[in-house]
Amino acid sequence: MSNENPLIEINHLKKYYSVSNGIFTNKKASLKAVDDVSLTVWKKHSLGIVGESGCGKSTMGKTILRLIEPSGGSVVFGGKELFHVEEKRFMDQKQLRSLRKEMAMVFQDPYGSLNPHMTIGDAVKAGVLRHKIVPREEAVEYCIEMLCACGLEKEAYASYPNEFSGGQRQRAVIARALALRPRFVVCDEPTAALDVSIQSQVLNMMLDMQEQMEFTYLFISHNLQVTRAFCDEIAVMYLGKIVEKGKADEVYYHSIHPYTKALIASLPVSEPGRKKGERKIINSIPSMMDVPQGCRFHTRCPYADEKCRTEEPELRQIEDGHAAACHRA
Ligand SMILES: Nc1ncnc2c1ncn2[C@@H]1O[C@H](COP(=O)(O)OP(=O)(O)O)[C@@H](O)[C@H]1O
Ligand SMILES: [Mg+2]
After folding, report:
1. What DSSP character marks residue 5?
2. Closest residue CA from atom 27 of ligand 1
3. pLDDT for 66-86, tens place per residue?
């Protein structure tokens, strides 16, 4: 994909939280939720970020958009630098505000992100007016069109969130984000709260909208199978670091890292791609406060040897466009 244009370039991104070391001490420890992540997101493509709960996916999404302050690294969006921590360069708030409409974020919980006292229509219209997306007199019609494009009836415009099902609410949240005609949409587990049957309908709608409006997705999920279906490329995250990345089908069908293989092995047996006899993860996920020395996955890896326990593997290209951080690869 190197002959295409990047929309986002993420270099050595870090987000450390300072957390208490326990209830009996004032000492603070550094929790490295995102620990030196570099990624490129290509225009009009979808990049999936996959990993177990707590591995730093949401923190990464929010840091890229500068909804939370970064601890290190840089992000360039459409040729404009949002920040470069080491060089002490940060885009000023005014410029950042005007870029906000180009970068949308859709969260997992559709109820929490809608005001229960506001109609769906007013919620969508507020952003459209604030960012002057269409002339004021066309705003209502435009918002109704957007709700319908996202699979809702036009009556949705005058409805309140509590009159909706979970799936309809999530469609409304997506319509609100897309009404600003963003170039980049970060979706953080957008369908995890929905029934499986509804999930695929909403995901298909999201793909249709991408085709019509030509924007770029960063798709965050704990489900490797859903991500393969949705994305062109996948980056697998483990305890704050990317351990494998490549084209979606390559990562799914020809995974290299034992962690990726274990994620696939943990899918229900009926799933395609799951290979019989693949060894499952042993032990549970370590705390981010206590990341293992050497390869951070070695405490759960069925193949770990002495080198894995002492030396941290680099993320390196194994095949064309397919990288993994594993000594055994
Ligand atoms: N505001 C915060 N303060 C301290 N620690 C946090 C904060 N937000 C997240 N974390 C920690 O950072 C790690 C990554 O969290 P998160 O990004 O939410 O992971 P994911 O989205 O993959 O589930 C977790 O260990 C979590 O407890
Ligand atoms: Mg999360």
Report:
1. -
2. 54
3. 999 999 999 999 999 999 999
